[in-house]
Amino acid sequence: MKARGRAVWSGGVSALLGRRMARLARLLAAAAVAVAALGVTASSALAYGSPLPCAGRTEAPVFAPWGDDSSYFLIPNGGFETRAMNWSLRGGASVVTGNEPWHVHSWRDGHDLQLSPGSSAESRTMCIGMGVSGLRMFVKGVSAGSAILHVDAIVQDPSNGWVGTAAFDVNGGSPIWAPTILIELPRLFNGIGQESLTIRLTERGSAATWLVDDVYLDPFKSW
Predict the structure, then answer these.
(1) In angstroms, how far is CA 77 from the centroid of its own chain?
(2) Are 121 and 93 in contact (CB under 8 A)?
(3) Beta bridge partners of residue 52, listed in sequence order
(4) pLDDT tens for each residue of the chain, 223 residues long
(5) Considering Cα of 77, then 24, then 26, then 20, what sign does the dihedral take?
(6) Shortest CA distance to 79 belongs to which of 100, 51, 57?
(7) pTM above 0.70?
(8) Which value, to the nearest 10 degrees, does the dihedral of the CA atoms of residues 60, 61, 62, 64 take?
(9) Among residues 120, 118, 113, 133, which one has the least CA distance to residue 48?
(10) How far apart are CA 12 and CA 17, in angstroms?
(11) pLDDT in tens, 159-198
(12) Could you give the CA distance from residue 212 to residue 183 in angstroms, rounded to a whole number?
């Protein structure tokens, strides 16, 4: 079993942002709240699209500069480089030109997701291993106060229909990109070794625009 890295914020890891980045990271980490609820019966239309099959993936410790040495893999179109493919965008959500400044996936990347007030984005349901432990992404808010980026991670066990949901809020906004802390996925049991995952992003609270990029999963155990 591989050792899991901790989602730890640290300063001085980027010449681009320096102390400002470290300060923002501490604020975001302090403001983030995660809750999980298990045991909800699945519906026939759990989430967007028919599930993408489990497939080969490339893993890398992309969050190592922030103290997390775990390997992660990008979800299908998690960098929004193929525009809205494998995403359902609503209420004015759109894919725009831009990128998180570290280009952790590729220096050729040049797009991210923009969530305007009241908008939402939902990933296409994807197959994951039951050991996939959490997700991280990069976010940037353009407001302060009560602006909230709300994240729902919905997991279904296809062998018995059970559904688990983890909800996570990033509170407050800042014009600086930052990685989220690790968002733990629900734990389902008695399955066949694979699950279906959907990620839903929603802008809440005071009017704000959020940018999201490079959505990654921590496999921890392989399917």
Answers:
(1) 12
(2) yes
(3) 126
(4) 333 333 222 233 333 334 444 444 443 443 333 333 333 444 434 567 788 888 878 999 999 999 999 999 999 999 999 999 999 999 999 999 999 999 999 999 999 999 988 899 999 999 988 778 899 999 998 765 678 899 999 998 888 888 889 999 988 766 789 999 999 988 776 556 788 999 999 988 777 889 999 999 998 644 3
(5) positive
(6) 100
(7) yes
(8) -170
(9) 120
(10) 8
(11) 888 888 999 998 876 678 999 999 998 877 655 678 899 9
(12) 15
- Assess contact for 124 and 216: CB atoms under 8 A: no
Token readout for 65 is 């500069």
- β partners of residue 199: 153
Q: Nearest Cα to 141, choosing from 67, 214, 207?
A: 207
Angle at 185 between CA 103 and CA 150, to 5 degrees: 65
Q: Which residues touch 134 (CB under 8 Å, ≥6 apart)?
A: 182, 183, 184, 185, 217, 218
CB within 8 A of 10, min separation 6: which ones? 22, 25, 66, 67
* CA torsion through residues 90, 93, 96, 99, sign: negative
Token pair of 77, please? 């179109």
What letter represents residue 101's amino acid?
Answer: P
In angstroms, the CA 182 to CA 56 distance is 23
What are the structural domains of the chain? 18-218 (2.60.120.260)
- Distances, alpha carbon 14 to alpha carbons 35, 87, 107, 137, in Å: 31, 31, 16, 17
Tell me the three state secondary structure of residue 19. Answer: helix
